[in-house]
Amino acid sequence: MNEKFIDKYLDTDKYEYEVLFTEKEGHATEICAKAIEDGFNIIIAVGGDGTLNEVAKKVVDTDILFGIIPAGSGNGFARHLGIPLSLKGALGVINKQKVQRIDTINIYPGGSEQNDENRSFYMSTAGMGFDAEMAYQFKTAKTRGLWIYVKLVVQHFFTYTPKEYEIHLGEEKIVVEAFAITVANASQFGNNATISPNAKLDDGLLDVCISRKFPLYALPMLVYRFFTGTIDKSGYIKVHLAEQVRVKMDS
User: pLDDT per residue over 75-112, tens digit each?
Assistant: First the structure.
């Protein structure tokens, strides 16, 4: 992060700033908590969706303003919001300080108390099944990027077995064998791979995207639909809307 570049494009008549760097996973949450204690009223996260989650979990339900400078491998949340991927463009958005109140996702293990200790927090998407497996594989990969993700999908597609889920969507209950389940607040995973094209950040609803396993010959069309915002037109994916979701997996 070049501070000379920040001084050039950030409105320093409006803002005073301090730059701090993370050193480990979870460190962004610690830095954010300390910044709030020190009286900062705007926190800007520089990174990908993982870093954004670490910061946002401390500013949610506060009066602290949260900003984004995309610097990850996919930048799904920033892309959904239309934030430029360049530092200059992102700083331009911050200068305008157009504030939007958004929804977030809280996940609690079954049978646990709903408190911060048991909470997993997400702003963009959370997944189960093949979705979660790919998130883990990508997180632990030595390198990042779109083609690494595609390679991992191809490697694990043939060996992954769909599982049976009992899903409660408010008062509605469905039982389904699913290849993947994605709970989407924002529309995409990253790199414009869109899982729920109509997802909105401020409608009070979660988009629950249930995918059934598909034959290999359907993959090219599904990839096309992912990157053209038409995946909801596929017969292999169905999207449900709900304020709350409860999922039980057949073990």
Answer: 999 999 999 999 999 999 999 999 999 999 999 887 67
Centroid of chain to Cα 75: 8
DSSP H or E run through 106: strand 105-107
Domain with CATH 3.40.50.10330 in the chain: 3-96
Q: Contact at 8 Å (CB) between 41 and 65?
A: yes
**Domain 105-249 is found in CATH 2.60.200.40:** yes
Q: What is the DSSP letter of 201?
A: T
Beta bridge partners of 165: 176, 249
Where does the chain hold its CATH 2.60.200.40 domain(s)?
A: 105-249
Longest dimension (CA), the chain: 58
User: Which runs of consecutive H residues, i.e. helices, occur in the chain?
Assistant: 3-9, 27-37, 49-59, 76-81, 87-96, 130-140, 146-157, 219-228
Q: What is the pTM of this model?
A: 0.90
Length of the chain: 251
CA neighbor of 69 nearest in space, from 19, 126, 140, 127: 19
Q: CA angle, 134 as apex, 132 and 140 as ends, to 5°?
A: 105
Q: Is the CATH number 3.40.50.10330 carried by domain 3-96? A: yes
Spell out the residues 6+ positions from residue 130 whose beta carbon is closer than 8 angstroms to its own: 156, 157, 160, 179, 180, 211
